[in-house]
Write a structure and sequence with these properties.
This protein is an alpha+beta fold. The protein folds into two domains: 159 residues, GAF domain (Beta-Lactamase, 2-Layer Sandwich); 59 residues, Winged helix-like DNA-binding domain superfamily/Winged helix DNA-binding domain (Arc Repressor Mutant, subunit A, Orthogonal Bundle). Helix content is 61%, strand content 15%. Keywords: Kinase, Transcription, Transcription regulation, Transferase. This is GAF and ANTAR domain-containing protein. GO terms for molecular function: kinase activity; RNA binding.
Length: 244
């Protein structure tokens, strides 16, 4: 059976095409961001231009066992995000725990999260969308969209937001993995320099120098990378002292 051609005269088809193009542009722009900080800042800036009704947005990411707002389009967003974290109640919290998307049409009449809704309403927030940022095996945090108007988000805005959140999660995990790779690379280089210092000072082999680092870090109850940094700093300070 031949494929059905897209009806380009259909307004709905035009809308879907525009959304697809906008999301593709967003994905490319986020991919170009150099680090996690710029990535999340790009997410909150782009989502308010992409999702109809979104006046403000915020991204919260897990740091250990705590959620922290890492990007927000305004101070108000950061305050309201932090209210969710403080009360451990709201669409963002449930989106993370129950793996769903939540929409609040009017904070004045919201009953699912009464404490949070009352506090958000006092700050002037009337509508909200909460999304989980996740990959197939990892929950990264949440994306929250806000409006000071009631009923600001319709079903289409909710779906577009879900698509955007999927792109955003991929961008976040890419930036996070890049940062972790750089950290690991820097750690390896620092440990290598520390081994070289010990090999020169103590006339040790590579393996003996590494074993000495490990045993010393265990006895002193400090991380091996912290011990390596200390050794390198000490060597650099000694070298500068001789040059002066």
């Amino acid at each position: 059976m031949p494929e059905k051609a897209l009806n380009t005269s259909d307004p709905a088809s035009h809308a879907l095409t525009d959304i697809a193009r906008a999301l593709s542009d967003v994905a490319r722009s986020l991919e170009a961001e150099p680090d996690l900080h710029h990535t999340v800042e790009g997410i909150v800036a782009a989502v308010t231009d992409t999702v109809s009704g979104a006046a403000d947005a915020g991204v919260s990411l897990w740091e250990g066992k705590s959620l922290r707002t890492v990007a927000a389009t305004s101070d108000l967003v950061e305050k309201v995000n932090n209210l969710e974290h403080k009360f451990n109640e709201g669409p963002c919290i449930d989106a993370l725990q129950l793996r769903r998307t939540y929409r609040i049409d009017d904070m004045a009449h919201e009953t699912r999260w009464p404490t949070f809704a009352a506090a958000a309403h006092d700050h002037g927030i009337r509508s909200m969308l909460g999304y989980r940022l996740f990959t197939s095996d990892r929950t990264l945090g949440s994306l929250d969209l806000y409006s000071t108007q009631p009923n600001a988000f319709d079903a289409e805005a909710e779906i577009v937001g879900e698509l955007f959140a999927a792109h955003a999660a991929i961008a976040v995990i890419g930036s996070t993995q890049h940062a972790e790779w750089l950290t690991a690379l820097n750690s390896r280089d620092t440990i290598g320099m520390a081994k070289g210092i010990l090999m020169h000072r103590e006339q040790l082999t590579d393996e003996q120098a590494f074993n000495l680092l490990v045993s010393t870090s265990q006895r002193a109850n400090i991380k091996i990378i912290d011990l390596a940094v200390w050794l390198v700093d000490q060597a650099n300070n000694t070298g500068r002292g001789r040059d002066e």
